[in-house]
Design goal:
The protein is of the alpha+beta class. The chain has helices at 2-12, 15-54, 81-84, 127-130, 146-152, 198-205, 231-234, 236-274, 276-284, 289-325, 349-368, 379-383, and strands at 58-60, 77-78, 91-102, 108-115, 139-145, 159-165, 171-182, 193-197, 210-211, 213-216, 227-229, 327-328, 342-343. It folds into 2 domains: 2-51 and 237-383, no CATH class; 64-229, no CATH class. The strands form 3 sheets. Strands 3-4-8-5-7-6 form a 6-stranded mixed β-barrel. A two-stranded antiparallel sheet has the order 2-9. Strand 6 and strand 7 (171-182) form a beta hairpin.
Amino acid sequence: MNWTIANKNFYRQGLRAFLNVLVTALSIIALIFMLSLLNGFQAQATRNLVSTDVGGGHYRVPGFDILTPTQWEDFTQLVPETLKRLLPTDKAEVLVQQGQLYPNRRLYPVQLRGIAMNQSLLELPLAGLESFDSQLGEIIPVVVGVKMARKAHLKKGDNVVLKWRDKGGAVDALDVLIVDVGDMINPRIDDGVVWLRLDHLRSMTRREGEVSWVAVREYLGPVTHFEFHGIELLMSDLLALLRQDRINSKILWGILMVLVCTSVFNTQILNIFKRQKEIGTLMALGMGSNQIVRIFTLEGILAALWALVLAVVLGVPFFIWFQSVGFDVTHLSEASFPIRETVYPDYQFREISISVLIVFVLIIISAWLPVKKITRLDPTLALRGRAIT
């Protein structure tokens, strides 16, 4: 009986009930979209960082810090046998040294990063270096990223002077040929980085068999004279940024919930004020105040259920369409985010279910709180419409 009365009263509200349901449904859609887009951004950023630089972690020379270029030359080691025996699909040997590039008569400090050509662990656009001989010639072939080329005013086919210092401290210089300008989706390996063949960089700096780190597919246990840096450590700056984005999303989520709960709360308050005589009549006929509270609360639950239905009807086609087109983030091309030009939402059923359940519970609480005062109404005053003023 309670459900029948609540159902009739809900539909009797007409446009007011529809607007209440619409606001709630749009808030649910906005909540799911915000969470899924953030998940997609995080998944794509971490995936690109892992596939282009991090792998499953790095075995690094102890004390090596990518942020202190003046010390790179002091932290190189021979590759230990444990890592040397790995297949090219499971490792990527990397040597990092400091250099100076002179494009168009300007000085441009760069990071010289040499990588083994037979590795397939990291996805890098360095195919242009593979055709060159392992022996160092008069001109050194190098590859730079799009961002690096734009800042240094370089293009494919340019010849520029590169200066570096070898293991003994002697300064040397040669012409380098820009054999390709690669599309580096990870700014870490683009901005200020000049890519060379590992054998060429070792020959230039007289560091045969030495590396700064070895990227591996998975952790292999302790390795002598090397320390392991896991994925979380290597991506700590990105993960910190994503955690901050999560906090910001929770603030926005809270704002949406305040709007939804306020809408439901105001609707219930208005219902009680306009229907005082109806409430007084029900009390006079012997209906208990708690039963009347349940009726009004059921009306709020009915609004929440219809909001979920409307969110599915409106949201599913929108999510399917947006999944096909994605979100263009070309405006972030100059930022330090390792992402492509389009981000696609990542819909996680468990997260969506929990979020919707929380919204549903909040709506029920918002529908129940204002009707508690019915238990304190005087039936005689309610019949005259003066119980609430």
